[in-house]
Amino acid sequence: MAVSDRTRLSVAIVEVQAGREDDFLQLIDQLDDLLARKQYARAETIRDETAPFRYYAVRRWTSAEAARQSHSDPDVNALRERLYQLALVNHVINGVRHIDQDKTVDDRRARIERDRRAGFDRRLSDGGRAEGSRRTSRDRRLGPRRQRERAIDLVGAARRARENADAAFSGVKVGAALETTDGTIITGCNVENASYGLGMCAERVAMFKALSDGHRAFSRLAIVTDTPLPMPPCGACRQILWEFAGNLEIRLASLTEDRGTHRLRDLLPIPFDARIL
Predict the structure, then answer these.
(1) Does the 2-115 domain belong in CATH 3.30.70.100?
(2) CATH entry 3.40.1370.10 includes domain 137-276
C-alpha cells in the first residue's frame, strides 16, 4: 500500500485518426519523453495488435502531486492539445483521481473521462472490423439514401429539416444538420410540447439521432431559422454538443443566407465536462 500511495497508475485507450499514425507516434514520443524528463511519470505507449489505430497510453506517475503538476504544465498541455487533434483519448484507469464514495454520479461517467476537444479532435469511429464481426454505423449508413445525404449541402439539409418542425407554441421553427467526420449528415428539428419543458431543440434531436445510429465523430453543425437575427444554440444544446462533439464548427443561417460561422468553444468558453468530475 505504501508503494501504491507513492506511485499511481493511469491507462488511456487512444484511437488514432486514420492516416495520422506517423504524426501520432512522433507526438506521443515527445510527450512521453517530456513526462519522464520532468520526472512526472514513467510513460509507455503500447500498440494494440488486434485493432488498427488503437494504442494504450500507460502512465506510472511519480506521485499524485506530480500528476496534478503535469496537468498544469504549459509544455505538457501544448503537446496534449496537439494529441487531441489526432486521436480520441478515453481514460479507463486513473490512479490519481480522488474518488468520493458519497458522490451519486453514474459510475461509467465517473470512471471513464472523455476529453472534450475539437471535432475529429475528440471522437473517432472504429478504425476497422474483423471479418464476420458486427457492422459498424458507417457500414449501415452507406445505402443509396445515405449517399445522397452525404452529397447535399449542410445548410440546405438544415433548411429542409426545419420544414418538419413542430413549433405550435413558440412559432419559431428550427432545423439542424450535423455532419460526421465521414461525411454523413444527420438532421433534426425542434419539437415542442404543451408542457414546455418537455420540448426538444433541433440541435439535440440531430445529436441524439446520430448517437443512436452509432456515430461518435463530428465536424460541423448548421442551424437554420427564419428569425431576423442568427439564432445560436441554447445553453442546454451547447452542453450536449460539447459533451459529444467537442469544438464543432457552428454555421448559423436563415432561409436565404448564411449568417456566420462560430466555434463551439467561443460559444461555451469554460465548458463543464467529465474532466472536472
Answers:
(1) yes
(2) no
- Of 19-33, 109-123, 221-235, 250-264, the one with minimum mean pLDDT is 109-123
Confidence of residue 118 (pLDDT cuts 50, 70, 90): very low
- 37: number of Cβ within 10 Å: 9
Residue among 166, 226, 253, 230 nearest 201 (CA): 166
Mean pLDDT of 167-188: 93
Break the chain into its structural domains and give their ranges: 2-115, 137-276
Catalytic residue among 149, 203, 249, 257: 203
Helix, strand, coil distribution of the chain in percent, nearest 5: 35, 25, 40
Helical ranges in the chain per DSSP H = 2-6, 21-37, 64-71, 74-84, 107-111, 137-140, 144-151, 154-162, 202-212, 235-245, 264-267
Clarify whether 203 is annotated catalytic.
yes
